[in-house]
Structure formats: structure tokens, C-alpha cells
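Sharing a chain and its predicted structure for anyone who wants a worked example. Both blocks are below, sequence first, C-alpha cells second.
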Amino acid sequence: MRETPDYYVPPNLKLKALQSALGVSLLFFVFYIAAHYVWDLPFPTPVDLLKILMVASAGVGLGVAFSRFWPLPPAPGVERIVRTLLLVIPALGVGIGLQLLVEGAEAQRAFYLIFAFAAWVGSGFIVRYATN
């Protein structure tokens, strides 16, 4: 017999993850386009935008996978802080590896930060039920 889980998984989790990946990508698309005019950074090419989309999607995927193992606690507190640190710090390390893989040693974009931010955003979908 199948027991009921003690956490909530949205019925349209794949769609929500896709929306989050596109939203994070859009945020950084706009940031890098504005940074071209404000700080004179190189204008993002379509290949750069595709790389941002891929890194953001991978980050959201990592966040969703992490939240399957450790669902978001129902109330704010120390557990949420520890959970966030245990997600974001390794995500920064993995992001640095992705940065070197995607752009090489001389990077123009901060893919490691995009990856860690997207992982943090993606980890908030699955929430543990409150216990009385």
C-alpha cells in the first residue's frame, strides 16, 4: 500500500520549473543588455543568451532535485538557512566548473552566479507539510 508523502509537490512541477528557468534567464538577459549600455560590457550575442538559458535551466533542475531530498520547511527558521547554505555553496562550486566548461578561463559572464541563483529559485517548489 502506498503511504501519503509528508510534503507537497505541485501537480505541474515541470511547467513551474520551466517558467522559473525562463524567468531567471530573462532577468539575466535584461541585466546583461543593460550592462552593455551602463558599464560598457560586451553586448550579449544569441549564443551568450543560449548559454545563459542552459545554465539557468541546469540550476533550476539542481534546485528541484535538491528539494526532492530535503523539502522546504513550512516555517522560516534556522533549518531554512542551513538548507539554503547547503544548496548554494556547492552550487557555486558546480557553477564555477560550468563557467570553465562553457566560457573557459577568461569569462565575460558570471555563469556560476546564475547557476547558484537558479538553484536557489528551483529549490522552493516542494514544501514539507507542517506537523502539529
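Comments welcome. The chain has a mean pLDDT of 92.
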